[in-house]
Amino acid sequence: MKKLCVLSFLLLLFSGLLVAQSTVDPLPDPVSNNAVAMLKVRGQLLLYSFMGIGAKKTADAVTNTAFSLDAKEGTWAAIHAVPGTAGRIGAMAASVRDELLVFGGYVVDAQGSMAVPDVGLYEPARDRWFREADIPLAVGDSVVGVYRDRYVYLVGGRSNADLVSNVQVYDAEKEKWSQATPIPGTPVFGHAGALVDGTIVYVDGARKNPSGNVPRYVASDECWMGKIDHHDPSKIQWSKLPNHPGTARFRIAGGGSDKDQKVYFAGGSDNPYSFNGIGYDGKPSEPSPVTFDFNLHTGKWETINENTPDPTMDHRGLLVTHEGLVLIGGMEKDQKVTAQVVLLSKEPKGK
After folding, report:
1. Among residues 18, 155, 211, 333, which one has the fewest Cβ atoms lying within 10 Å of its Cβ?
2. What span, in angstroms and rounded, lies between the C-alpha atoms of 121 and 170?
3. At 61, phi and psi to the nearest 5?
4. What is the pLDDT of residues 262-277, one digit of tens each?
5. What is the C-alpha to C-alpha distance for residues 42 and 40, in angstroms, rounded to an integer?
6. What's the CA gap between 33 and 136, in Å, rounded?
7. What is the pLDDT of residue 110?
8. Which helix (H) or strand (E) holds 6?
9. Which helix (DSSP H) or strand (DSSP E) does residue 13 occupy?
10. What is the pLDDT of residue 136?
11. Has residue 183 got a pLDDT over 80?
12. Nearest-CA neighbor of 82 among 112, 121, 115, 114?
């Protein structure tokens, strides 16, 4: 009888997940490499998508449009576009103090991409943007995390000069920037991770080719954990982690949950690529089907699903909700930019 009750509960749970997924509208337009965040506004959970690149995957397909999703109704609404002369890819977004912040990223033209220092604060209640203090070192493709609902960390990334080890910290209360303990490992961009309860976990990304030959960038397999000093948010104690499950290395979707005490990862590709999904080695990149997490309670990696259906890559994050892991947009097989909103289970397959 006990086993039957457990089975019934699981069936109800997963049927609920399927219903939730089927009732969520796709984005108004396909988009990839979009910054994502979520925030409660007047008691209602809203999910946000900022900028990114459209279906053509060309420089003129980069957009500054922004949308919010009412999690209860499952419908998207256009909000005021992100300010600036052009849209961006590789930007970072975070919710802080009942507002949303969007950091950096790259503007793209026919000659290539340029990292920008822009920081925009979005006020949902009034659908208004404000300019905040510029990032000291303009970067894109950093890992972003929030500590104590005040300090926003930008971990590593790519500047206009090179890949960086900087950990740049924005104090949302004082509206000032500072530098924290840099990452000790190889500088990377397009890595994935999150900040959970004072601990930063990040994995992989692309690093400069140590041989100096083509391709310019190759996949990194380094995984790191950093513990923020409770008395000094600029001090981080870094330690290396063992390799995670699966082989994805670049632009995995990453996100964390203080409640779960886990950092979750999904998709990504083992072949670092440019904004069009074609690898720096000239070969088309394809998404990984592995979904996994790092459990801060046990200090171990956990495989959630080795064969996630319809995997995606080219993400700037995933959003962790009570119902599951939410992926917004991205690139599907054959580098197809999608408008789909996908809900993945947080529980290992078969449990």
Report:
1. 211
2. 12
3. -95, -5
4. 999 999 999 999 999 9
5. 6
6. 23
7. 80
8. helix 2-22
9. helix 2-22
10. 98
11. yes
12. 121
**Number of H helices and number of E strands within the chain?**
1, 27
DSSP letters spanning 125-178: TTTEEEE-PPPSS--BS-EEEEETTTEEEEES-B-SSSB---EEEEETTTTEEE
304 alpha-carbon distance from chain centroid: 18
Q: Please, is 283 exposed, middle or buried when counting C-beta atoms within 10 Å of its C-beta (0-12, 13-18, 19+)? A: exposed
CA 200 centroid distance within chain? 13
Given a contact cutoff of 8 angstroms between Cβ atoms, the answer to whether 291 and 253 are in contact is no
Mean pLDDT on 164-192:
97
> Which tens digit of pLDDT belongs to each residue from 30-53?
999 999 999 998 889 999 999 999
Q: What is the mean pLDDT of residues 291-316?
A: 97
> How far is it, in rounded angstroms, from Cα 262 to Cα 282?
35
Instruction: Determine which helix (DSSP H) or strand (DSSP E) holds 250, and give its type and residue range.
Output: none
What DSSP line would sit under 174-204, residue for residue?
Answer: TTEEEEEPPPSS---BS-EEEEETTEEEEE-
Cβ–Cβ under 8 Å, residues 46 and 86 = no
Query: Which residue carries 């809900």 as its tokens?
Result: 343
Element at 93 (helix H, strand E): strand 92-96
User: Does the bond joining 215 to the residue before it have cis omega, within 30 degrees of 0?
Assistant: yes
Going by C-alpha positions, the residue among 224, 234, 135 that lies closest to residue 183 is: 224
Burial of 12 (0-12, 13-18, 19+ CB in 10 A): exposed
What is the residue-wise DSSP string for 293-308?
EEETTTTEEEEEETT-
What's the pLDDT score for residue 351? Answer: 64
Residue-wise pLDDT tens digits, 327-347: 999 999 999 999 999 999 999
pTM as predicted:
0.93
What pLDDT is attached to residue 350? 66
Q: Which residues pair with 216 in a beta bridge?
A: none
Q: What is the pLDDT of residues 75-109, one digit of tens each?
A: 999 999 999 878 999 999 999 999 999 999 999 98
